Structures are given as C-alpha cells and as structure tokens.
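Hey, I was hoping to borrow your eyes for a little while. I've dropped the whole record in just underneath, so have a look:

——
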Amino acid sequence: MDLVARFDTADDYLAVHEQEVTQGGLLVRGAELPPGTPLGDCTLVIELDGAEVARAAARLAAATPGVGVMVLFPTDPAALNALAARLAGGPQRKKEVLSLQEKMALAVSCDRELRFQFLRDPNKQLHPLVLRNPRIGLEEVVWAAKLSTLNPEALKVIADHQEWGKNPNVAAALVRNPKTPVPIALKLVPRLPVSELRALARSQGRPQIVQAAKKQLMG
C-alpha cells in the first residue's frame, strides 16, 4: 500500500528529514489506516506542494488515531536522502546572504521559511530570538523542541512558556531531546500522557528521566 506524506515547502521536508528520516523512521502526521490494516510493508510517497517527488520502501510500525502513522525504513532510504540533498542544494537561501545583525533583527518578525532556517542556524544567538516572534505557531515550537542543535537557553524558553510548556506534545519533545537540561526535563515528566510515560519507561533514554517516568506511572 502507498502511504502519502505531504509537505508544503522544501524547508518543511528538510526539517523532518533531519529529525526523523536520518534516525530511521518518519511519522506521517494526520494519516490514518483503514480498520484491520496489518502492520507490514508499504511504500512511503513524499509529496511536496501537491506533487509527488519521491518514493521509498518502508514498514508500518504504529498508527495512533488523531496523531498519524509511524513508519520505519528497513534499508537506507536512498531516494529520500537524494531528495533532501537536492532540496538543500537548491536556490540560495536568504539566510546565506544576511549578516548576523540582519538575521537577529529579522528573527523576531520574519516569515515561516526564515524561522525554520534561523532555528537551524549554527549561530545559537538566533534561536531564542525566533521564539519571541509573535507569528510562530505551536507546530513550529514542537519541531524546535526536538532539535538537538537548539540553544539550551531556547529549550528553557519553550519549557517556561505559559502555553507551550503545558502542551503534552511540546513537553514530550523536550523530555526526549538529549540537549534539554535534566532538571527542566524532570519538571515536564508529570505533564506527559500515559502513553508517552510508558514509552519513556521502556526506552534507553537518560536514566534519571526513565526512572521519573516509571515513578509517575506507579504514582
């Protein structure tokens, strides 16, 4: 069967490729499987701005109603890696022609494309500034919370935010991010849904967090 993952922009795909595909899997957000569908082999189809751009062999791993379908790649997804390389090597990105001062000035008001670029920028001074941008959406915050390259200060800003820190998806992303300071991650564990606590308790994550998840489940 074909399972379609749709992306609006090249940066949307590149972000997911960096965080998920390179780790051996992909969550097809919003996808659903017909009732009774067995978890077996499938073909992952990548659509960009409504057009098919790549296909890769995959295996259905899990389906969560209201969240999406998780697939794993039994072999290296060469077509997806080639797509990422092609997109990354496309037209010169705006960030490459901007000075640091210009980036910092833009970070608090820029559009979605630049926000994604600045959150991946090697200069970590930009990361907390992007989070001050009033146009940033919750989906972007969840994505940022997963970035192991994000400035730890920016991770703290997300955790301390009155709205973001209470969101279970944001909390789960921060807790699983190895760069989130342990004291911050531990404070977020009680905000996780039971399904996430169970997954953490069985994981090979940081020992303090695994133990906290087990304790939360027992309590």
Summary: Confidence is low (pLDDT under 50) at residues 91-96. The two ends are 42 Å apart (CA to CA). The CA atoms of residues 116 and 183 lie 27 Å apart.
